[in-house]
Amino acid sequence: MKKSILVFASLVLFASCNKTESKADLHITGNIKGLKKGTLYIQRVVDTTLVAIDTINIDGKSTFESDIDLKSPEVLYLFLDRGVTNSLDNNIAFFAEPGKMTIDTNLDAYLSDAKITGSKNQELLEEYKKINNRFNEEKLDLIAKKFKAIKYKNLKAIDSLGAKQDSNIKRKYLFATNFAINNKDQEIAPYIALSEIYDINIKYLDTIQKSMTPKVAKSLYGKKLTEYVNGLKKQ
């Protein structure tokens, strides 16, 4: 996870230094049912830290809106400050795109009940996560079984479970690679390469990088993937 964050560390600075791209407005509207008072922050990653780019005060009215200058599709975060905790359950990640987007949720299930519309990349991200979660669930199940096998010193089971763990990782990475290539015309492709499989064999990252359409290659994540792959090749 730390490596993944580091890969993205300079994304925003990279974008801010690129003056050849024109600004594109993003208009966000939403509703947090049940919220009467609190503060919303729209954030982006800067140097591995989430930094607020807009602040919205909620006082009696649960609806909100915001206008963001977005040079390229980018994963942003909608953080709810309840004045009590900074739990991850208070932060909704969404793949922002120029245009109009809507984020609706409720106070009791802020993260899990979030409905985000208006972004093709967001739709693809949700599709990806749905399948990827299966690999994560299998990973946790295998860890629990292996722990039990170690506890009872069942060497045969330990070896078998270790092989299954390796297989699960390979299938997870292959799925991510294929998903990125199959969606080479969307910014989700380089995003997945950078955030999910940054440590895979370089030939797969190179394939994803070369498969990107010109539009995606010029995007924030597209340029960063090219930069990242070129850096690996020089090592």
Number of folding domains? 2
Order of helices and strands: HHEEEEEEEEHHHHHH
- The coarse overall form would be globular
Number of strands: 8
- Derived from helix and strand composition plus strand pairing, the structural class reads alpha+beta
Kindly provide the radius of gyration, computed on alpha-carbon positions and rounded to a whole number of angstroms. 20 Å
- Biggest sheet strand order reads 4-1-7-8
Mean of pLDDT: 90
Roughly how much helix do the residues carry, as a percent range? 40-55%
Could you say what the CATH architecture of the largest domain is?
Sandwich
Just give the CATH class of the largest domain.
Mainly Beta
Query: Major sheet, described briefly?
Result: 4 strands, mixed
Helical run tally? 8
Give the helices and strands, then pairings:
Blueprint: H1 2-7, H2 11-17, E1 25-33, E2 37-46, E3 49-59, E4 63-69, E5 74-81, E6 91-96, E7 99-106, E8 115-117, H3 120-151, H4 155-182, H5 188-195, H6 202-211, H7 214-217, H8 220-234
Parallel strand pairs: 1-7
Antiparallel strand pairs: 1-4, 2-3, 2-5, 5-6, 7-8
Task: Walk me through what this model shows.
This protein is of the alpha+beta class. The protein has helices at 2-7, 11-17, 120-151, 155-182, 188-195, 202-211, 214-217, 220-234; strands at 25-33, 37-46, 49-59, 63-69, 74-81, 91-96, 99-106, 115-117. Helix 3 (120-151) runs antiparallel to helix 4, helix 4 (155-182) runs antiparallel to helix 5 (188-195) and helix 6 runs antiparallel to helix 8 (220-234). The radius of gyration is 20 Å and the shape is globular. Residues 9-24 have low confidence and may be disordered.
